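Appendix C reproduces, verbatim, an entry submitted by the partner laboratory led by Prof. M.T., so that reviewers can inspect both the input and the predicted structure.
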Amino acid sequence: MIYWIITIVAVLTVTFFIVINMKAFGGVPKGERLKRIKQSKLYKKRQFQNISHTPSITEGYKMSKVTYDFFLEKKDPLLKPLKEIPSIHTDLKNRDKNQDVFIWLGHSSYYLQTDGISFLIDPVLSKYGSPFKYFNKAFKGSDIFKPEDIPNIDYLVITHDHFDHLDYPTVQSIRDRTGMAIIPLGVGAHLERWGYAENTLIEEEWGAEINLKNKLKIVFTPARHFSGRRIRQNDTLWSSYVLITPTKKIFLGGDSGYDSHFKRIGEQYGPFDYAILENGQYGEAWRYIHTLPEDVIQAGIDLKAAHILPVHAAKFALALFIHGMNLYKGLQLLEKNKN
């Protein structure tokens, strides 16, 4: 009996290490990159920190219960569309480079072209948002864009390293069509393992201001979230961005719970012509790390944004429930602000 227990444990251990070392899980920061991380003011107690105390689960909820519900409990049927999602496939490769365009590719992935420069943000163009093709499958109709549809791009922008924002098959496929990659500190370990040269990575932390081509500038700004593709979390940074061009200002939000950083960014860099904010796949248990609908409205107000472009929805079922009351509160807040 003891022999079989030892054998099973050994097999499971070996299997775990084989799986966790698959390329999809990326790399681990080491060497000079790890040295930079340890010197960062944002890195304390062996992990990156948010500005405010940020529990992964809201008070009154238990991690065990939330995890059980996520994997085993029947989810709200409203989370998955009853029919194929209607979509329009845009030919990205034949767009006029001088034309300003924003093309949503599903979930938090989008193609942005402005002032003659092209950006691809958080591209997940696989049929799944996980390390395995059998989990977290995309809704029918939401996966019409493929990696081969992506043209040569000036800048790949990654907000953080979660699987629904940093997709190994997509990022590896477009490597030779990518000029530079803009990534938070630590995320370069993944890209380098996937074949990206170190001199093609713009890898910084909050506060860094980087001059880009055509007199554009991008600023690494805070977000309230977390990171991690492997067992250990928060060993890489997460970020939002401020994109400043000769003609406009755009806030690239990534994933973030609501906090004071939206107001600070609005005061320092606003007003914004556009704010691209997550508005989907949320829940009360995750309110510190994902915005609720009324939070999205308030974030837009704080940022002094003329227009909000909502993302983080309509491709994967990542949350447990749709909270209609929160949406109602959000609409009330927007109407109140108008008056």
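The helical segments are 2-20, 31-39, 63-71, 168-173, 188-193, 261-269, 293-303, 324-338. Additional entries are available on request from the coordinating office.
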